[in-house]
Amino acid sequence: MIAEVIVDVASSQVDKIFDYSATEDTKIGCRVVVPFGKKVIDGICINLKTVSDVPSDKLKPIIRVQDEQPALTKEMIELMRFMVKRYHIPNSLALRQFLPSEMRKGKVRAKLVKFAILSNYQPDILKKNAKSQIQALEYLKENKREKVAVLNEKFSASAIKALYDKGLITFEEERVNRLPYSKLNLTEKKVEYTSEQLNAINSVEQSDKKINLIFGVTGSGKTEVYLNLIEKTIKQGKSVIMAVPEISLTPQMLSQLRARFKENVSILHSGLSFGERFDEWWRLRSV
Question: Going by fewer Cβ within 10 Å, which terminus of the chain is more open, N or C?
Answer without folding.
Answer: C
